[in-house]
Design goal:
Length: 417
């Protein structure tokens, strides 16, 4: 199993380019299932989750050609096997995103119940409820979702809770349904707008993506298109937190400050100076960070995918912060690992009370999920001495070439077998 070794204490300095967004690319790949014609997607990040999703699509009959440089063409001329087996789905919850497109295009789907990060129960009841309202017959047998329909029909669906992939799944399914679908209490994440833009370029009729009411007028078929994946706002935020925590100065290219208002506000509150224009962000940190309280909530509020990274920052900040996780019930697993590095953190229910200390100690730690891994990397960068992070396959699911990018910023980081 691979590990990362970090020698802490060096401020990050320099310029790197941000990759395409994992959470936008995954649903975009699934959108290829909706048409017989080729879909060309650019700026696809080189990540384990993308490899897993492409393998899943290929075993369904999708033809894929890579042109290098993050460009990929997917062609679903014939869907021979509308099945997502357990072995492929267990590592990546986003595999549930094939359910809506398969039902809409092929009229059937057999999908293993998803796995992914162990950050909570993460049920898929909202996906199922929505597809049933659109006329699908769905049964759960032996850990698989079995879904069939003659033809999906438009429906008004009110989500009980805000779900990102739930909104994306139903939005994709509704593009080929008969009649109009209205999704209420929809998620408003920028990745949903990116997907809607691609689907509209394929001939779909979607209005209101990015608001909590999305209207989709079904069409009889979709056609091929070209689309560029939006920048990864979580990768962007992770590097900005790392630069703030280490007292560095970095310039991030190919990103968009407007995607992460809530995160930039918190970094400013912590003491960072931030400048940005349409496609870059610069951050400079000259002082010791101040503690910042965090409460995660659906977009545009503070993202749960940035909570763990800010916890590492709070570990070495001036003051005490209350960090409340409201989206996932088990997303404080990094606390135990940060405590191994001497952090002062108390957990009460879904909140962590973090009191900053002068310095973290390097230690052997274990990555437990994707964003928790990122928090351990940040902790390792600021700690005194050496930190060894085990189980970094979690990190490879969502960060493209993280040690390469951090090395380019002056970090001492190395991957070993
Ligand atoms: C997506 C992101 C993930 C992010 C999360 C929240 C992708 C590929 N992943 O995950 O990085 O952390 O949004 O911003 O885009 N829920 C239900 N029933 C459902 C669906 C969800 O109860 O049918 C609950 C979940 O357990 C969770 C909450 O709703 O507590 C939000 O989950 P959701 O938005 O669906 O997360 P994902 O789409 O899986």
């Amino acid at each position: 199993m691979q590990k990362l070794i970090i020698q802490g204490g060096l401020p990050l300095h320099g310029e790197i380019s941000i990759s395409g967004a994992k959470n936008a690319a995954l649903p975009l790949l699934c959108a290829a299932l909706l048409t017989e014609e080729p879909l060309k997607i650019s700026n696809v990040p080189a990540l384990q989750d993308i490899i897993t999703m492409v393998s899943l699509l290929k075993q369904m009959g999708v033809h894929e050609t890579e042109h290098g440089n993050g460009e990929m063409v997917l062609s679903a001329a014939a869907l021979t096997h509308p099945v997502a087996p357990y072995e492929m789905v267990k590592t990546m919850r986003a595999a549930i995103l094939v359910l809506g497109p398969l039902l809409a295009r092929a009229g059937e789907a057999e999908i293993s119940l998803p796995g992914g990060c162990a950050i909570g129960l993460r049920p898929v009841d909202q996906h199922i409820k929505g597809l049933q309202a659109m006329g699908a017959e769905i049964a759960i047998r032996h850990g698989y979702i079995h879904a069939v329909t003659k033809k999906l029909r438009g429906a008004r669906i009110v989500f009980d809770i805000v779900t990102v992939t739930g909104t994306e799944n139903l939005m994709m399914a509704a593009t080929l349904a008969e009649g109009t679908t209205i999704l209420e209490n929809a998620a408003r994440e920028p990745e949903i707008i990116d997907l809607a833009n691609c689907l509209n370029a394929m001939g779909a009729k979607i209005h209101g993506a990015g608001t909590d009411i999305i209207t989709i007028e079904g069409v009889s078929s979709l056609h091929g298109a070209e689309h560029t994946v939006m920048p990864d706002r979580i990768e962007t935020g992770t590097f900005l937190v790392a630069a703030t925590a280490t007292g560095g100065e970095i310039h991030l290219k190919n990103t968009d400050a407007q995607l992460l208002d809530a995160v930039l506000d918190k970094l400013t509150e912590a003491g960072a100076r931030i400048d940005s224009a349409t496609n870059w962000i610069k951050l400079r940190m000259r002082t010791k960070p101040k503690s910042v309280n965090i409460r995660t909530a659906p977009y545009p509020a503070f993202p749960t995918d940035m909570q763990a990274q800010f916890m590492s920052l709070n570990c070495i900040a001036d003051g005490t912060a209350i960090m409340t996780e409201t989206i996932f019930e088990n997303r404080l697993m990094h606390v135990q690992e940060l405590k191994r590095m001497n952090a002062n953190i108390e957990v009460e229910g879904n909140a962590a009370i973090v009191t900053g200390i002068a310095q973290l100690d390097g230690a052997n730690v274990m990555a437990t999920d994707l964003r928790a891994s990122a928090s351990l990397v940040i902790a390792g960068l600021v700690a005194q001495g050496e930190t060894v992070i085990d189980r970094i396959y979690h990190l490879d699911r969502g960060y493209e070439n993280i040690e390469g990018k951090l090395s380019a910023l002056g970090a001492q980081i190395q991957r070993i077998q």
